[in-house]
Amino acid sequence: MDSQGTETTKMKFCKHCGAQIAEDAVICTVCGRQVEEMKSANAPQPTIVINNENNNTNTNLNAAPQKSPKNKWAALALCFFLGIFGAHKFYEGKIGMGILYLFTGGLCGIGALVDFIVLLFKPNPYYI
Q1: N-to-C CA span, the chain
Q2: Are residues 54 and 47 in contact, defined by beta-carbon separation less than 8 angstroms?
Q3: pTM attached to this predicted model
Q4: Which end of the chain is more exposed for a tag (fewer CB within 10 A), N or C?
Q5: Read out DSSP for the chain?
Q6: 16 to 25, 34, 50, 75, 117: CA distances (angstroms)
Q7: Using one digit for the tens of pLDDT, what is the confidence trace for 66-110?
């Protein structure tokens, strides 16, 4: 306290911005930067050991199996000439549909006709 009864605090200057701050301040109230080291009561600074051994291998377990490319023109020719026997379905690896086409005459020819139109608009190569 000074002679008039008011409390006076000792001041110091911030080493970053030069503003006047309290002597016991650790962080400048003007610029927000740290001006003093943090003092702890009888607690030594902890020793920090970082053991970072990153041996991770990234594997995508949700990946779909690799699709095989098929030639549009080969499938189209098989569908045109042997569509009622399901040859284009066997070529695509759809054995069940091939057997169905074989026993039903290409679903009475309608399935073979629809497949021909669908194959006509597929890109080359297409993937199954």
Answers
A1: 89
A2: no
A3: 0.51
A4: N
A5: --TTS-----EEE-TTT--EEETT-SB-TTT--B-S----SS-PPPP-------------TTPPPPPPEE-HHHHHHHHHHHGGGTHHHHHHT-HHHHHHHHHHHHHHTHHHHHHHHHHHTS-SSEE-
A6: 13, 9, 31, 76, 77
A7: 788 999 999 999 999 999 999 999 999 999 999 999 999 999 999
